[in-house]
Each structure stands twice: as C-alpha cells, then as structure tokens.
Amino acid sequence: MVLSGGDDRLWKTWGFPDGSILLTGEGHTDWLSGCCFRPSGTQLVTSSGDSTVRIWDLSRRGCILTLRGHARAVRGCSWHSCGDFVASASMDGTSKIWDVNSERCRYTLRGHEESVNSIEFLPFSSTVLTSSADKTLSLWDVRTVSRL
C-alpha cells in the first residue's frame, strides 16, 4: 500500500503494484503537505495548509482527532516509532510534539528563524530532526526540549 496527499485536500491509499485507489479521506480545508502511517499500520497522520494535524483511523475511514495549535500552515508530520507521539513542523517557525493518547501538545520546539519544513523522529529514540527555510538542520531531544 502507498499513501499520498496533495493540493486536492485528500489523502489516498493506493494498492501496489496495480495502482488502484483503496481508501480516500477528506476533511482538511487546504492542501496536504504530509502523510504518514502509524507504525502499527492502523492509523495515519496528515498535515495541512489549514494549520492542523489530523489523525485518521483506517478501519473507521475517518478523522478521529484534529490537533490545533500552529499559527500557520503545517509543512510536515511524522510518527514516533512507539506510535504514541506525532511530530509536526510549521511555517510559523515552530515544531510540536503531540501526545496522541492525551490529545494535546506535549512540547513546542522553538529556535528556527524561518519556516520549519520537515520533521522526523530518529528510530527508537527521543530525538527529532528538523529542517528549516533558514538553511539549518537541528537535532532536538524532546525530553528536554533542547537542541543537541
């Protein structure tokens, strides 16, 4: 299965290798910038120009949680390998670590001078990597909310 999102505000799962559309999700009000499967494969996360991050349940075929807190478009998202946390990167210059179980922002990472364009958890760690339009990369320890 392959996952995609785009300017049409939809995410789609595609059968591989035949290319048939298996599922489609709608709910964002602007373009999708990122989408990623939960490590267990039962859910996915999307980020959007509408400044939200959404969690989708594939069996229910719908959005089960909308995370709000960024002031501008969200450029990227990723799951932690444990499946309990989602990271988001925004044009507002911040990144956020969301606790999916409590449905709230656990940490806000500040330090980039311009848009944060991508974010990824390093596998099986509390470290995230961000990239920014300020032409820098940063490694963060999310336990201490500090740059490494």
Automatic annotation (TrEMBL):
List UniProt keywords, sorted A-Z.
Repeat, WD repeat
Looking up InterPro entries in the UniProt record yields: WD-F-box_domain-protein, WD40/YVTN_repeat-like_dom_sf, WD40_PAC1, WD40_repeat_CS, WD40_repeat_dom_sf, WD40_rpt
List the SUPFAM superfamilies: WD40 repeat-like
Cited PROSITE patterns: WD_REPEATS_1, WD_REPEATS_2, WD_REPEATS_REGION
Q: Name one GO cellular component term.
A: axonemal central apparatus
What's one GO BP annotation on this UniProt entry?
Answer: axoneme assembly
The domain of life for this entry's organism is Eukaryota
Does the keyword field hold DNA-binding? no
What is the official name of this protein in its record? SPG16 protein
What's the source species for this entry?
Cinclus mexicanus
Name the gene behind this protein: Spag16
